[in-house]
Each structure stands twice: as structure tokens, then as C-alpha cells.
Specification:
This protein is about 45% helix and about 25% strand. It is built from 5 helices and 5 strands; from the N terminus they run ββααβαβαβα. The protein has a 3-stranded parallel beta sheet with strand order 3-4-5, sandwiched between helices. Strands 1-2 form a two-stranded antiparallel sheet.
Length: about 120
């Protein structure tokens, strides 16, 4: 976090800026992903996680799942930009591209736990 003093007319205010774009995945969403993954039980970690996302959240889940040794499957709609798909795959997640809408992808993801047993 960086602090800046900036004068506004006759008032002085101390302003703190948090550069979320400097996160490893360039998104604030990785903090939430790390928090949730950190709260998983050992059994849940072993089972892995499934997430649905078309971008930034997917990258955050994939990045931190890999760091924590948690298998991750990310379900993404087919319209997801290829750069986000490849970046997410590069973090070690299994990617499933399915559905013409986000809701289609979410529906497919909801079927995965029963398929996996």
C-alpha cells in the first residue's frame, strides 16, 4: 500500500491507494480465492475445487490452488477470451469450455461433482 498526501483546497487528506493491478494475477479477485482455499479442510483440499468463471476469478482460483497443491477444475463459457483460458490453464487448472452463456457453464459445473462421485 502506498500513502500519498494530497492537498484539496485548504484541506489536507491522507489518501491510501492499494494497487490491485499489482497482484500476481492482476486482479483483486485472487484475494477472495486464496481466502476460500485456505479455509478448506484437508479432505476438501484433497478432493479439489470446481469454479465457474470467465476470467479473473478463474485465474485467482487456479493460481492459489496450484500454490496450495489443490486440484482445480475451472468451467468457462465458450466465449471466454483465449488469453484468459490459456493464462488460467498455465496456473495448472483443468479447463472445461462449455456453454454459450455463463449460466450454461454454471449448469455444467453443477453436474461435475455427481459425475466425479
Amino acid at each position: 500500500m502506498r500513502a500519498f498526501a494530497h492537498a484539496v483546497t485548504d484541506h489536507r487528506a491522507e489518501v491510501y491507494l492499494k494497487f490491485e493491478n499489482l497482484q500476481f494475477t492482476a486482479s483483486f479477485k485472487e484475494r477472495g480465492a486464496l481466502n476460500k482455499l485456505s479455509l478448506l479442510t484437508p479432505q476438501q483440499r484433497q478432493s479439489g475445487v470446481i469454479a465457474v468463471s470467465a476470467g479473473n476469478h478463474a485465474q485467482g482460483v487456479a493460481y492459489h490452488a496450484e500454490r496450495l497443491g489443490i486440484p482445480a477444475v475451472i468451467v468457462m463459457p465458450r466465449f471466454t477470451p483465449m488469453v484468459k483460458v490459456e493464462r488460467t490453464r498455465g496456473f495448472g487448472a483443468e479447463i472445461i469450455l462449455t456453454g454459450d452463456t455463463f449460466d450454461d457453464a454454471r449448469q455444467e459445473a453443477s453436474l461435475l461433482p455427481s459425475v466425479a462421485g
